[in-house]
UniProtKB/TrEMBL annotation:
Residues 39-73 form a coiled coil. PANTHER family: 26S PROTEASOME REGULATORY SUBUNIT. Homohexamer. The hexameric complex has a two-ring architecture resembling a top hat that caps the 20S proteasome core at one or both ends. Upon ATP-binding, the C-terminus of PAN interacts with the alpha-rings of the proteasome core by binding to the intersubunit pockets. ATPase which is responsible for recognizing, binding, unfolding and translocation of substrate proteins into the archaeal 20S proteasome core particle. Is essential for opening the gate of the 20S proteasome via an interaction with its C-terminus, thereby allowing substrate entry and access to the site of proteolysis. Thus, the C-termini of the proteasomal ATPase function like a 'key in a lock' to induce gate opening and therefore regulate proteolysis. Residues 184-323 form the AAA+ ATPase domain. This is Proteasome-activating nucleotidase. GO terms for cellular component: cytoplasm; proteasome-activating nucleotidase complex. Belongs to the AAA ATPase family. ATP binds at residues 195-200, 334. HAMAP family: PAN. Keywords: ATP-binding, Chaperone, Coiled coil, Cytoplasm, Nucleotide-binding, Proteasome. Consists of three main regions, an N-terminal coiled-coil domain that may assist in substrate recognition, an interdomain involved in PAN hexamerization, and a C-terminal ATPase domain of the AAA type.
Length: 412
């Protein structure tokens, strides 16, 4: 910054007592002119200083904004591989790039090799993350032998047949596909309204084939750190290959595989990366042996069609709300262990629960039991079911749930 020139000297006035009046007047006029000059120079300088202050203020504002942006920019997740005298060797999740990087002395004391860390664009370690086991445990549910059996599923006969054919057969009789010379379906996508038995179907097939059931919720895959979702997908498939035969079940797959939106936020980019990882795991699937992949969604209309291509989720099975006969069966299944009074008319209840899901019917039976308990009884009567039905309807109205044919066919 250039230095400002020195301020002009203050004009001085010297009046000689010998001066005539005319000379005095001339000297005063000259002095006045000098003062006006100095004043003009000072005002000009003040104007410059004010302008400089405004510019500096703008510069400060701009720097503050940049600082804020830097603070909120997404960080990348990496594993600290080795602590050396020159810094820390980290391996970035997502691209597996190894980098020797810096870390502040305070953070360095906290890091042990193997820890997960978050790094910025220049790979400087910003923070140490919680242990990976927690993130994995939170996101994945592993069940060595789920207890659900096919006969606990009401209705869904055609869907059960299709799932068995697409998932069970390739696990149990892979040679029959080889003999015929066809590839079994890569992935099975169950789509339909919430609570219709999609998860049950996947669990039942895992039970029947003695496969480990590994469930991951799509919403858990959408992590806040860059590279984390993709890493969880890799972990999911790695875990499955350690536990084969295994059924990988990705619930709410729409969370990671929605149609591309126009917004370009870093969150969207991260979801895209996670989906790409999922697609690449599925594309390299032939070598995987005894792992079958299933997914579920209640937003089929939102799915990115890329995940439905051959070799990916290429078997689509719709799981709708139960029809009357299925509702009757679901009522039977969920009242098996209850003491039911003679006056209970299941035909009537099946008729009155049109538009309800299997999960709704399960709640209905539990609620009816609660009404009986409140009344000091152990036997459940028709009135209890009627009260439970009223309560469910009221709850639905409160939560704004729309039932029975009032939604467009693609949205559940
Ligand atoms: N067809 C059915 N037969 C028997 N019970 C059912 C049926 N459908 C749902 N249920 C009951 O509802 C519960 C929830 O079902 P499930 O989790 O399989 O639904 P979902 O379709 O996977 O739901 P979401 O889309 O919300 O994940 C089940 O544990 C079961 O008790």
């Amino acid at each position: 910054m250039s230095r400002s020139p020195p301020l002009p000297d203050q004009p001085t006035l010297e009046l000689d007592p010998e001066m005539t009046d005319r000379e005095r007047l001339a000297a005063l006029r000259e002095h006045f002119a000098e003062i006006v000059d100095v004043n003009a120079t000072l005002e000009e300088r003040l104007g410059d200083a004010r302008e400089r202050r405004t510019n500096l203020r703008e510069e400060v504002d701009q720097l503050e904004r940049e600082n804020e942006t830097l603070k909120t920019t997404s960080l990348y997740v990496a594993t600290a591989e080795e602590l050396t005298e020159d810094g820390i060797v980290i391996k970035q999740h997502g691209n597996n790039q190894e980098v020797l990087t810096e870390v502040s002395p305070q953070l360095r004391d906290e890091i042990e090799s193997g820890d997960r860390v978050a790094v910025n664009d220049s790979f400087t370690v910003q923070t140490v993350l919680e242990t990976e086991k927690d993130a994995r445990a939170q996101a994945m549910e592993v069940d060595e032998s789920p207890e659900v059996t096919y006969d606990e599923i009401g209705g869904l006969h055609e869907q059960t047949r299709e799932v068995r054919e697409a998932v069970e057969e390739p696990l149990e009789n892979p040679e029959q596909f080889e003999t015929v010379g066809i590839e079994p379906p890569s992935g099975v996508l169950l789509h339909g309204p919430p609570g219709t038995g999609k998860t049950m179907l996947a669990k039942a097939v895992a039970n029947h084939t003695d496969a480990t059931f590994i469930k991951m919720a799509g919403s858990e895959l959408v992590q806040k750190f860059i590279g984390e979702g993709a890493k969880l997908v890799r972990d999911l498939f790695e875990l499955a290959s350690q536990r084969e035969p295994a059924i990988v079940f990705i619930d709410e797959i729409d969370a990671v595989a929605s149609k591309r939106t126009d917004s370009k936020t870093s969150g969207d980019a991260e979801v895209q990366r996670t989906m790409m990882q999922l697609l690449s795991e599925m594309d390299g699937f032939e070598e995987r042996g005894e792992i079958r992949i299933m997914a579920a969604t209640n937003r089929f209309d939102m799915l990115d069609r890329a995940i439905l291509r051959p070799g990916r989720f290429d078997r689509l099975i719709e799981v709708p709300n139960p029809d009357e006969e299925a509702r009757r069966k679901i009522l039977d299944i969920h009242t098996r262990d209850m003491k039911i009074a003679d006056d209970v008319d299941f035909e009537d209840l099946a008729d009155r629960t049109e538009g309800k899901s299997g999960a709704d019917i399960e709640s209905l039976t539990t609620e009816a039991g609660m009404f009986a308990i409140r009344d000091g009884r152990t036997e459940v009567r028709q009135d209890d079911f009627a009260d439970a039905l009223d309560k469910l309807e009221a709850d639905d109205d409160e939560s704004g749930i729309v039932t029975k044919g009032s939604l467009p066919s693609y949205a559940y």
